[in-house]
Amino acid sequence: MKVGARVFKTGIAIVIAIYVATAFNVPAPVLAGISAVFAVQPTIYRSYRTLIDQIQANIIGFLIAISFVLLFGNDPLLIGLAAIITIVINLQLKNENQLTISLVTLILIMEQQDGNFTEFAFWRVAAILIGILSAFIVNLVFLPPKYETKLYKRISTTTDDILQWIRIGSRSSTEHIMMKKDINRIKENVTKADSLYALYKEERETFRKNTVAKSRKLVIYRYMIATNKRSLDILKRLHRFENEFHQMPEDFQIQVHHQLDLLLRKHEHIHLKFIGKVKPGLMLEESTDTYNKQLLIDIVKGFRLNTDEDSPVHYHMVTLISSMLEYGDYLEHLEMLVNSFHSYHKSENKSIKINDDDQL
Prior knowledge:
- This protein is mainly alpha-helical.
- It has two domains: about 140 residues, no CATH class; about 210 residues, Up-down Bundle (Methane Monooxygenase Hydroxylase, Chain G, domain 1), CATH 1.20.58.
- Helices cover about 75% and strands about 0% of the residues.
- α11 runs parallel beside α13.
- The two termini are about 15 Å apart.
């Protein structure tokens, strides 16, 4: 089990919040620690948005609680009514994500208490705000996330897994259950890559030139993920139609193997080019031994010409070849994006290097 940066940040935020609240003699400093838990976010931008939204939610809960207690009292029925109003106002302001903190503030202020109510309410809100601000500072200063590195590593690992299984699955009878489990695991990795992409997209750059370079990288990463989905589709079809594929004539299998190998090599070549291990603009060796899109199209046409009736086996093979054609189109576009990225924007793209020792 790996302990991520967010776990450490949460612990640090709680400690800082309680210490600060204690230093200012805030009653019930533990409330600062509790509010810090709600405020820790995976990115600095989300932390900033959470800070704004939670301050707004706290003010709403504070004002409604003060109004109800001063005007009507703090009977449990009144607390319930105040909670309903708080929910409605937050929903109207499209701040539904912070409903919990708003309601917590409301209930903490409206609970039974002795002494000066206004002072009591002020200190309760102060404790919660200290927790929110502590979490924001921790997000800003401690362990800044490297989502680009995590994203590329996730994409790269997923690509390696898919290409390895395609090579194995197209040539031999694999363990069906084991391959199915790995396909499910790969699907989860693709979903995680989508999540990391969203987090990386949210991160804000300090300088404009970095923002422009990042926008270009976002396009490439999006196409990398999309290309992985196309290759995963080929793997799923090879797995599902394994028996049908091996029933096909040997020359058909050889042609498909060969074209798949060329596509997989091209995919690997593009990734090496992206991280700078292959010279930008360098293409795979030009020879007769290159990916032949027209050959795959001719195979499909041959099915139509050489069969008197539709064959389920042929139909399944047509879907496989269609997936290969789509995969090839995505690879061509991805390679064009990577070549353009390195050829025309060299000065802005120095941060593209990914160290081999960077970990997920």
